[in-house]
Amino acid sequence: MTTQAKLRIGKIRYLNCLPFFFGLVETLRGKGVEPEVSFFESYPSEINQALERGEIDAAPVSSLEYLQHQDDYLLLPDLAIGTRLFARSVLLFSKKKIEQLNGAVIALSRESLSSAVLVRILLAKKYHHRNTFELTEQDPEAMLQKYPAALVIGDQALFCQPKELIYKYDLGELWHSWTGKPFVFALWTVRKSFAVREPELLKTFLEGLRKNLSQNLSDPEGLLKRALGIAPSDKRFCQMLGYLVNLQYTLEADMKEGVLRFFELAYEEGLAPAPKPLEFFPHPSPLAVGEGG
Q: Which candidate among 73, 114, 118, 231 keeps its CA 20 to 30 Å from the CA of 135?
């Protein structure tokens, strides 16, 4: 992590963040702020911790991370990672039907925060189960050797092909079928102290980020080709393309309803503090991208 940079950005190394970050350095260079920005790359829960400790200034963090520290954070307007139906990369792998998991010990990936709370809420509220949970390193095969079910997120969930036949439950789908609302896994969040100290730099960064996202979502096929060097003939290409197109990167009205419902349920389950109204960093212009690109 470059401590000399004025603006330190957390970068999640999952495929779902590719539309935010591919080409971003060049976009920021065009705005004249690239030398003032540095990046720290890791998985979601470590990015959450870095923002909480003040080691970075802004990042797409777990939605629950914002809730847990809402007095210290602001949201960057319009920007999120969510789904209106399938998540595809947030899965509960289980050796039993989910209805039969009452009383079971469930493995939770250490890389997750929002998804770990989501699975707790679904099992308790939707299925009326009473479970215990253990945090583990994210290794689907090892997790399923020890536990009857395991929460796996990110690219490992998207591409995992277990050796044995197991049940796969998409948490985005379970949430939508139960609440009728979208689910927001991540929110672009900035420390209030930085927003007060460097509002113009943050505004310029936000303009570049939004422009970069809009460009990448306008051509998701080209994004995969340029960013990953993957050809349409590759068997994973269609899987990646469908995944990116399905995701929602704008925090529209129904997405806000979904995240606020999640916050309410997390509070009811004693997993988070009482939610307050969402607070945003001021920015005048709307994000010019369509749903899911």
A: 73
